[in-house]
Amino acid sequence: LTELDKFKATPLVSRMLDNISARIGLSDRISFEDAKLIYQTCAFETAWHPKSPSPWCALFSKDDLEILEYSEDLKYYWIDGYGYPITYKQACVAVNDMFHHLTDESHPPYTFYFTHSGTILKVLSHLQLYRDPLPLSADLFNKTRLWRTSQIDVFGSNLAFVLFSCKDGYKILTMHQERPVTLPGCPEDDLCPLDSLQDFYRHSIENCDFDQFCHLDT
């Protein structure tokens, strides 16, 4: 069973489903899948019409929303995040490409890539951003977690690396959702020296064999 499957079988989720069923007026318990569909409809309608509350959202309490949000985070933590090393290690290709474009002056001054949210999450994990001290699991409902897909993987999610030529060398500004973020090995309140960033991710740069990651013995 996946951690999400285990979470769906917990008393916490069962009570949530009972509460939602009672608000709807159902005699039988609503399924988790149907509750999740209502949750997604609530989320999309809220995004599309932020000034007009979605009637679907009225079926949830604040606790219900937090539980459903955690189920979403749990799902993508293990599919696109820190759950399995191979998941984020494969993002070394994108990180290597970023360094290549920043250090090769023959490239155009701007490089843009467009991708799916799963790739964004893999790259964020490879960069070691939003990593919690303990893995997300079914039996640890962590309300203070860093891994929140509703914040780090939103509509139009984006990641940018900006190179500055300073008096003391090249430095990098990293931005996620147009906000500066501090990468591991970088100063908290200043631009990050390019050399420091390359040193921190050197193992990734020098051991990036995508074909080997995806190799299956036959």
What structural keywords apply?
218 residues, Rossmann fold, His_Pase_clade-2, acid phosphatase activity, hydrolase
The CATH architecture name reads 3-Layer(aba) Sandwich
> How would you classify the helix and strand content by structural class?
alpha+beta
Main beta-sheet strand count, sense and barrel state:
4 strands, antiparallel
**Count of extended strands:** 4
Low-confidence stretches: none
Mean pLDDT: 93
How many structurally independent domains? 1
SSE order = HHHHHHHHEEEEHHH
CATH class: Alpha Beta
Per DSSP, what share of the residues sits in E-state strands of 2 or more residues? 5-15%
How does the overall form come out from the CA principal axes? Answer: elongated
State the helical fraction. Answer: 40-55%
Taking the alpha carbons of the first and last residues, their distance comes to 26 Å
Compute the gyration radius: what is it? 21 Å
CATH topology annotation: Rossmann fold
* CATH homologous superfamily assignment: Phosphoglycerate mutase-like
Number of helices: 11
Protein name: Multiple inositol polyphosphate phosphatase 1
Organism: Homalodisca liturata
Keywords: Hydrolase
InterPro entries: His_Pase_clade-2 (IPR000560), His_PPase_superfam (IPR029033)
